[in-house]
Amino acid sequence: MKLQFLLTFFVFHLAAAASMKPQSAPVIKTQDGIGLRYNQTGPKNGQQLLFVPGWRQAAVEWRKQVEYFSQVGFRVTTFDMRGHGDSDKPDFGYRVSRFAADLNDVLTQLDLRDVTIIGHSMGSSLSWAWWDQYPDSHRRVAKFVFVDQSAVIVKNPHWTDAQAAEVSAIFGPGPIYDIAADLANQLEPLVRSMFTPSVSEADFEWVLDQNKKMSDANAAALFVDHSFRDWRDVLPRITVPALVLSGELSVFPHAGIAWIATQIPGAKSYTFTAAEKGSHFVFWENPERFNEVVYDFVKR
């Protein structure tokens, strides 16, 4: 009897311990067989939001937005792009066009409707590529929020400085390849430039760790492809309400980001000031203000 009790006790606690282990995020399979980890929180009948990270960033970096928006009644979806975070890491497909196809798989397989897509940095470029490539899926999207991404990163050598500044084209062609060829040494200063000096070292190291979940080789291929894209002809064809967000302390000069709103019919823009910690990662450094601005736009 005592032995039976001990066995029952052991089995019960083993099951309890197993139930307390964190569960792996669910997976969707892309058309070319790559597993993308995703998470959904908030009430199932809530207004839909889809957060798309930037180059080399993981979905978990949206956690301050996920917590807030799910608590105030939104249905919030995040996902790790291929090669990023906890998703599969194949050695192919590191092109914005392929990532746009992956985004379409997320939208269709999860059957997201009337969704607002919030894209940070390269996440904005994915959204522009998706809008360009998948017109049959446009009906799924209610609004866009584009966070601190220029429409052209690499300036044409034949442009004047004024022409480059208008669109916040901040790199010449050569430096893009230099960074890509030396990512092992370039990553830390590059990521640090995206924050204000007031970011805590613990926060910075945590974000850097998320970046390191992607290999340098895959990140370099994607960085080059992403950098040489030009989205200016897509912007005037966006037909849903859009909000363009920039920051006074961002690596991208804010005037060139705000310019995007002048190209999208009816779009609004907002620039986070230096006092609002308006860095490239303002959603991390000042989540209260960022969430407030996004909430007001989405609920408008």
| Helix and strand run | HEEEHEHEHEHHHHHEHEHH
Looking at the structure, the CATH topology is Rossmann fold
CATH class: Alpha Beta
**What is the total tally of β strands?**
8
**Total domain units:** 1
Overall residue-averaged pLDDT value:
93
Shape: globular
Strand content: 5-15%
Number of helices: 12
CATH superfamily: Alpha/Beta hydrolase fold, catalytic domain
Q: Profile the largest sheet.
A: 8 strands, mixed
Helix content: 40-55%
**What is the CATH architecture annotation?**
3-Layer(aba) Sandwich
Q: How far apart lie the N and C ends?
A: 67 Å
Structural class: alpha/beta
GO molecular function, one term: hydrolase activity
Pfam families: Abhydrolase_1
Organism: Echria macrotheca
InterPro entries: AB_hydrolase_1, AB_hydrolase_fold, AB_hydrolase_sf, Epox_hydrolase-like
Descriptive terms for the model:
eight-stranded mixed sheet, globular, Rossmann fold, alpha/beta, disordered N terminus
Would you kindly provide a brief summary of this structure?
The protein has one domain: Alpha/Beta hydrolase fold, catalytic domain (Rossmann fold).
